[in-house]
Design a protein that fits this description.
With 136 residues, this protein is mainly alpha-helical. It contains eight helices and no strands.
């Protein structure tokens, strides 16, 4: 999937008005997602995403943040709290916007990438990647 299409789909799903808001959302969500992921999984995910999204993941991999070792196990609630805090939105809006981005990520990558991500993440992240109307 090309970046323009990725951006358009996220903007529509997140119900955002501008490209700038959409790009900020993508950056925040992808950064928060990369924080608990292993470097291997981050690289695997990045390999199938548009270059602009890859760059967000690459920046996260390169930053030498000592706390990353302790961040590996944060739960989905912490993920959503990070998104809502970085975007200054309500918790519910953070969940909705995160799911909008992840819906497009799921459309852009192979199912095996999503399966691999879910194995690397703590329990509970399945809902982040579920299709609309899908149940566990």
């Amino acid at each position: 999937m090309q970046y323009d299409e990725f951006l358009k789909r996220v903007q529509e799903r997140a119900n955002l008005d501008s490209q700038e808001e959409t790009e900020q959302l993508i950056e925040v969500v992808m950064t928060a997602l990369a924080e608990p992921l292993s470097r291997e999984e981050t690289n695997r995910l990045a390999s199938q995403l548009p270059a602009q999204v890859k760059n967000v993941l690459a920046r996260n991999r390169e930053e030498p943040i000592p706390a990353k070792q302790t961040m590996r196990s944060f739960e989905p609630e912490e993920f959503y709290n990070r998104v809502k805090g970085r975007l200054s939105v309500s918790y519910q809006r953070g969940v909705e916007q995160s799911q909008a981005v992840m819906t497009v990520v799921r459309e852009a990558v192979t199912p095996s990438i999503i399966d691999s991500l879910l194995q690397d993440l703590p329990d509970g992240y399945e809902t982040l990647f579920m299709r609309e109307g899908q149940r566990r």
